[in-house]
Write a structure and sequence with these properties.
Layout: H1 6-13, H2 17-25, E1 32-34, E2 40-42, H3 45-55
Antiparallel strand pairs: 1-2
């Protein structure tokens, strides 16, 4: 199985390519370049699975829920 391009990762994560580049810049998604430091970016399937595993338990509504009172 070959490694994934930024476009393929964006499709799998259902986000934009711009978002994937942001994840790479913030070092949340591991990658490597083909053809030196200015080459095209590739992401391994293992790196994508690790990213998904690290983000699977996040609750997008956590900040909007009221805090429980301690009675």
């Amino acid at each position: 199985m070959s490694d994934l391009t930024v476009k393929e990762v964006a499709s799998e994560l259902r986000c934009s390519e711009h978002t994937v580049y942001g994840m790479i810049r913030s070092r949340r998604l591991d990658h490597y370049r083909v053809g030196g430091t200015t080459g095209r970016i590739r992401i391994t399937r293992e790196a994508l699975d690790a990213f998904r595993g690290a983000t699977v338990n996040r609750d997008p509504w956590a900040r909007t829920r009221p805090l429980r009172s301690r009675a």
